[in-house]
Amino acid sequence: MKKIGEKSFWYKALLLSLVMPLLVVMAIYPFKNWFTTTDIVMLQLLWVAWVAVRSNRRVAAITTLVSVACTDWFFVTPYFTFHIENIEYLVTFLVMLIVGLMISQLAGELNTKVRDGQLHASNSRTLYELAKGLNSLDTLDEQKQYFQQLISDHLAITCQFQQTRQQPTGEFMLLSDKEHSLGGFAFTTLLSEGQRSFVNTAISLLYQVHEKTSLRQQSAAISVQAELERAKNALLRSLSHDLRTPLATIMGASSMLADDEITLSEAIVKEQAGNIFEQSKILNQHFDKVMELSRVNKMGENLCWQTINLQALLSEAKARRQQQLVHFVVTTNIDANSSCQGDVTLLEIALANMFENASRYGDGHAKLYFSYQQHARQIDYQLRITNRLASSLQSSTDQGVGLGSVICDVVAKFHHGSFTLDINEQQQSASACLAWSKLND
């Protein structure tokens, strides 16, 4: 393709510098008696100026020499010779030659500046597209593939990424002079100084985007680690808080029963045995919560999005806590056709824990509200339970509310959402909200 382009250029140059001046002379020749030699020289200079603007200075200079020769051959006596009898014609031809060469030089410089400006604009546009494209990609492999495709198209030179230089010929430029392990880009031919400068800038841009991507990924990893630490600390606090009271009660009651120096009536022995049994059941419930939390974490690794009927979701969630929710009444604004999207098992577990906490700490009645908002890129869902607090609550916090809230929070995080629990002691009310989002593909 390059050889064909060079041949086409030389054919065009031959036409402009040799053939066309002859055609211009042939067009003027029938009317030579109407013009003076100076007029013909001016007409020839028009063609020289046009060629200088349309082509390069070399072609324009050749056109000037050919035009001077044609003017002398066809329009100066003696005709059809290069002999000049009148010295004024020599001055005219000399001025024509100087003016033509000056026009060629000035037009050549102008064309060079125009081409440099166009090349600069093209390079700037390519670098802008490169930066925009690279910032939209997340991995170095994708960024390198986009880079070599865009640069190859722009320079019309094959560009390939190589871990190490594999061919002695051509050009090889490292992605980073400090980190040779990152590899570099190989070009099939040697680059010009301008091309090398452009590629250096493009590679520097690629390396900066790569560093930015790496820092962003490290920041995301740190945020995830911080979130895991926060969740772990919350879980440990909840376990410590929830287990301490029943364990203390069991230890106190059992030590009293085991002390030979203390004489206990049959009623007191029965009462302490009942306390041990009740607190043991509470501990068993806590361990069930721990196992449920472990199951939620395992299922969250393979989240399964599906369309869920909300009425069915509520029924299954209540069925999971059937014994605890025997006297619990829920009123809702959800109709038979309402639906949402998410992992049905995880949402059932979260909603069951919300019902359980509302039943234990409420007055037996609660209201459930469902709402959603659809945006261009995602759908936001929200389930909110509000209830009045019970008039008399147990002084201890041995009912496992903390673990239930942790489970709800984990389920929400897996669904790109959050869980909040607000307790208003002045108004004696509580509100638990499970919010999550489904990102559109």
Q: Mind telling me the CATH class of the largest domain?
A: Alpha Beta
Helix and strand content put the structural class at: alpha+beta
Overall tally of domains: 2
Measured distance between first and last alpha carbons: 43 Å
Helix content: 55-70%
> Order of strands across the biggest sheet?
5-7-8-10-9
β-sheet strand percentage = 15-25%
CATH architecture of the largest domain: 2-Layer Sandwich
The unreliable regions are 1-5, 394-401
What fold name goes in the CATH topology slot of the largest domain?
Answer: Heat Shock Protein 90
Integer-rounded radius of gyration: 44 Å
In CATH, what is the homologous superfamily of the largest domain? Histidine kinase-like ATPase, C-terminal domain
Largest sheet: 5 strands, mixed
Q: What is the overall pLDDT average?
A: 80
- Written as H for each helix and E for each strand, in order along the chain, the element string is HHHHHEEEHHEHEEHEEHEE
